[in-house]
User: Fold these one by one.
Assistant:
Number 1:
Amino acid sequence: MSSTMSKADIGLIGLAVMGENLVLNMESRGHTVAVYNRTTSKVDRFVDGRAKGKKIIGTHTPEDLVASLASPRRVMIMVKAGKPVDMVIDQLVPLLDKGDIIIDGGNSYWPDTQRRTKDLAEKGILYIGTGVSGGEEGALKGPSIMPGGNPDAWPHVKEIFQGISAKTDAGEPCCDWVGEDGAGHFVKMVHNGIEYGDMQMICETYDMMKRGLGMGNDDIHKVFAKWNEGVLDSYLVEITRDILAFQDDEGIDGYTLDVVLDKAGQKGTGKWTAINALDVGQPLTLIGEAVFARCLSALKDERVAASKILNGPGTSFDGDKAAFIDDLEQALYASKIVSYAQGYQLMRAFAEEQGWKLNNGGIALMWRGGCIIRSRFLGNIRDAFAKDENLVNLLLDPFFEKAVETAQHSWRRVVSQAALLGIPMPAISAALAYYDGYRCERLPANLLQAQRDYFGAHTYERTDKPRGEWFHTNWTGRGGTTSSSTYNA
């Protein structure tokens, strides 16, 4: 550790891409930062390289890191989620005093953050679990930051976090306190689930243009460039535009995208979002389909074999391409609205279950800049919750209701054409099915519940009786009067 520097304002453990860039971001905002990495050669390489001449203190042990920090000590962990986080915490706890702060900035599963917040509070140590979104560039220039955990810790990190975060056009920081215990990492998980949905829908739209309409990469690039100037203005549409135009010596006709293997990876946050939705009975259909689409893509060898055996419709598009591209824009926009509506439904359900007081408009603001799902219409989401903080579904807000109403005929033409051409659109189709189900006063679940009562005596409620009264019918004439208890799994 350099003896010429004063005590550091904050320490960071884990010098991978995100960790390094967050350190440089903090230092550029006037903070002295101490760094440590288990592989100490990374510390030396960073301090002698990108950090050279900056107010960054390299340390080779957790003891040195803690000793270099001003009190109350603030230590941010940027390591792989799961056991590695617990291992670092176990190293730090004996070195810290009551009132010191540990911050987990990785993609931890929120129940782990809940557990850690409680366990560390019993030791007098304040804990924050914060989502950080924006990738490599966001970490360096301004990410979206979603902190939760022990609220007593927030005043000690607020200035640093809001200083390094992205800012809206009005200068508002894309960072604010989310809620207690696991709330910050929960909101980041939902963010990632929405990200899965957005990416899948963009891919489906690209596939329709590529295979369905027979368009080349340059023409598709021009479409996404145009869309990024309108209602679909967003980071993911922007990078899709750039990817489609990118060329190098390795690509087919120069286009790099065409030699990228069609096998998607995932790190689990989308899966967690879908599982959590099932746990609380929320219809997160679009994000679930996006996760399963990645799973299907991973079956590459099976798909190659199946393509030689299983036949599709063998038809081609013979309509007005320009008009259909406009339909695709509207279908993607409407489906994107559904994705956010479902995500906010999940957050509302968990807020009620966990006793969190989530600021829904504030979350939209946090996602407005810096993060992967940042897009123009997040401002409209913020406005919707400003008008009605108890809004149960974004689709019921006048702005979004009108937007989907305007888009729905295009949306239906796209889903219909996809089915006719044999081009899978699982996420966009699921979004439309959800919309039709949510706006339906009567669903066929009456038959489903009758079936359950028939084979399992699970009982049912009646439309001609008060809600909450349960009935059983002896459908076969052979059953008894005993019925199953009523509960929701």
Number 2:
Amino acid sequence: MTGRLLRRLLATGLVLSLVGCQASAVTTASPSGSPRQTGRPSPTPTSTPTATPTFEPTPTPTPTPTPVTGIALLDGMAVEPARAQRLPLAVMIDDNVAARPQHGFNAASIVYQAPADGGEDRYMLIFQENDAAKIGPVRSGRPYFIRWAAEYRAAFGHYGGDQKAQAYSWVNNGKLIFDVDALVGAGAAYKRDSSRKAPHNAYTNSDTFRSVAERRGAPKTIVTGLGSRLFADDLPADQRPSSGSINVPYNRGASTYTYDHATNSYLRSIAGKAHVDPLDGKRVTARNVVVLFMRQSVDPESEPGYRRPVLDQIGSGRAIVFRDGKVIEGKWVKTSDSDLTRFYDPSGREISLVRGRIFIQVVATGTKVTWKAG
């Protein structure tokens, strides 16, 4: 062999040897179809790295906005600002036995009860922040009720009145009151209930009444610059008595109250029976009961053929204020027709009332009002 041939053979063998080495690393299929490794084992596969979890930041809760409230001028209750500013509605209510039960008491802010002619008495319900779907029966006005309505520059609702009441309403309409007289252009505010006999069957509701009053020139909101009474939060329960009662006599049955410690309110009864408002089916309650003693006389000139009562409501007189189950004896003061009647203790300080409905019970001087403290 020549050197040149030998070198070719060596080169060829080297190539074959290299090819055999590469072939021994090829993966072949086994009879079962599963892959098997021949020659050198395959390197262990590298595991897939686990992803690092990401965390979303916890959202900061949006604080609930504190509701904006106003304080109702008439009874000191915290209410929506729009309701706190509404024009008061003062409506005359019948208290003849045939008129009972009357509607609307539990929606009123202030309730007046006072003597009327014929040995009867009448109510005046004053509404501000609350509405009532039925109010009545509505009856005629009297001058002293109009003067109380004037304290709040209220829309005054009534079904006519005696000559002096009518004249007073006409002169002061748009000034001290906003007259809503069923017999003088405001009949749309009232309707008759056929289930009752006239004259104890005229009714209104707060929505219709407000609408008619506004059409007749009354403002939507309370007149600015009016005086207001002082209001305070309830006494703590451990400072209030456990019970108590009040008795205010009237010719058609006494108005009585039983103090309820749990609610710090007075449960009302008439002529010995629980006073229930058919509008909501609930017992009528007061948070404050104020008794005003006024000199009562008869006006022989009020109207031909009638002897209408007169109450000396301008000036001052004895007052008893019941609140928080306690009794404060003092005096009332009213300086003019338009001035607010205020209540003072024996030291001359104005008496504050608890927030909520006020019943003002007006009786003739000398009337025997009794009470018991628990």
Number 3:
Amino acid sequence: MQFSQPTIFALASGRPPAAIAIVRISGQDAGRVLELMAQRQPVPRVATLATLLDLAGNPIDQAVVLWFPAPHSATGEDVVELHLHGGRAVVAAVLDTLGRIEGLRPAEPGEFTRRAFENGKLDLTAAEGLDDLIHADTDQQRRQALRQLQGFLGAKAEHWRRQLIEAAALVEAVIDFSDEDDVPDDLLQPALAEIEGLRAAIRAVLAAPGHSERLRDGLVIAIAGPPNAGKSTLLNRLARREAAIVSPHAGTTRDVIEVYLDLGGYPVTLLDTAGIRHAQDPVEQEGIRRAQARAEGADLVLWVTDETSVGLPPGRTRTPTWLVRNKSDTRGEPTSFPEGIRTFEISASRGDGVPDLVAALVEFASDTFGGGDAALISRARHRTLLEQCAAALDRAVAAQDAGVELVAEEIRSAIHALGRLTGRVDVEDILDVIFREFCIGK
């Protein structure tokens, strides 16, 4: 027995006031809402001008309404969109009227997308891509999220899953239907050949360079160095605004200042840290401790120095470190660069050399994130499930001499991992293939 879900509604656009506000309604009563508020049901998928009424028959707004009957809608259910004038009073009146209609309730966060998933309109990777697209702050994040929304990983995983189902059908036939006349004798070897090919393909994806799943969070770059070297001035130059206080007095920066940047399309969190020195003030000591801790956890450290201190950071860690020699406008001729460390000559106050530093940072981000559009994996969940699938296929190949039942069990584990990746897990798939391919049960 199937139980219908309640009809849901929500404001699907930004917070009013705005030029246009969109209210979305999804569920079996969506058509009834149109008949109550617009006094008619327009032609499907055709924008129609209508006067919306409240339950007492009073006009609320003149709006454009769209009607999407199931299953040809975003959620797979009957869907209505009301395109209103975006004033607060208009939106409030429409939402109040919807809340008074029996059978309707406000949507919970993500509920429209969840219903789309449950109705087969998109898989889990596409739903994650939609969430990432909504929260994308940079162009590279947008591009990656759009690829996932369009099925970049989901389609590949579903193709692999179907191939594994075909291989599993062969192995299951060996186990359960070997005495049937229309089942070929040697089915295990073709199945193993299919498994080995899939295992190689998945391993290649896992071994691909780059860490695209990190693109959602971005890089962390710490600006560190001795006091008064120009760290805050460099932060302000990179941020193109006065994000940090600049003062000639040492110890001005007491805490870690974070600035979020779009650096060539890549998300970067820039940290301005307290000057590293031996301090007596307990507040400054705490700032220095925090600075050193954040620098330890950063992806890259820009060690900023000037003419008074040109050396490298004391006790360097494994965190990549670039030497940034500031105040080149007051130093005269550039000094010699130390070997084995990337060095930049800049003037943070005037901007000299900063474009070269920015270009190098963009290159560093591109190398870190993989730089291309070929990366399939965009979340840690994807990598974990693909690793589980590949490990199960490894065990399946290794178990071929131990018994066909073990091979079948490991293939089931691999199929289940791919099914969890896309959200499509169906234990009946293998049986369906067996009946179709071998005419079992005639």
